[in-house]
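My main concern about presentation is that the manuscript never shows what a single data entry looks like. In essence, backbone conformation is discretised, so a fold becomes a row of integers matching the chain in length. An entry of this sort, consisting of the sequence and the corresponding backbone structure tokens, reads as follows:
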Amino acid sequence: IVDILRGGALDETVKWPPQTPEAAVHLEHWMTVTSEGALNSLFASKALEKVHKLLDVGGGDGTIALALTKQYNGLKTIEPAMQASVFNLPNSAALARKNIAQHSCSANRDCVTVIEGDFIKDATLPGGHDCVMFSRVLADWSPDHCSLMLKKARDALVGNGHKTGSKGRLIISEPLLEGNRNLSLSWEYRYIFSDTFGKACYKSVDTYVDILTKLGFTIASITPMSDDNFYTVIAADIDI
């Protein structure tokens, strides 16, 4: 800590966006080994039970998308089968393609595909999906950045050629300020020595609800954090 406070370099810094394939491996491994809690929260919320085409924004190496399609397609809970697209930066997208090829989620090897892009710099998000999900993405960004990303999600859902009268769904699965005030402080302090993400960015549920309401969404459900993990899942719908 003394060396760092004196301006010394960090040996293993997690930066976003990752600049090299090796940096992407470091970041996405970090996200993969901590994915169990996020998946348990999503399953408990039941927010994806009627989703057919999911866009997982910043979806890492595809671990979350693979697990979701396997869960819902295996249980035959939706028809037609769920398909998912992982949207991520090129180096991370390469990892996702490799992971998907190694872990086919069903007889249909195309149930999870990969789209390259930058959710911050790109003007739009890919269309053609009935659900856009941010899982463990928004917590690292300020409310203003979150508002911009959620607006892109809304625009990607609305007017996609779906059946008139249908709805698009937005899912946010993130640690919120409620129930996590101590964690927010310790988390930010811990990671100032190892990453270059934003600081003090845990936001309240009211912050997300306010942003979503102003964008025209209707809150469908809010599944609070449990004793097993610290993620809250917000599901919001919009006419498309």
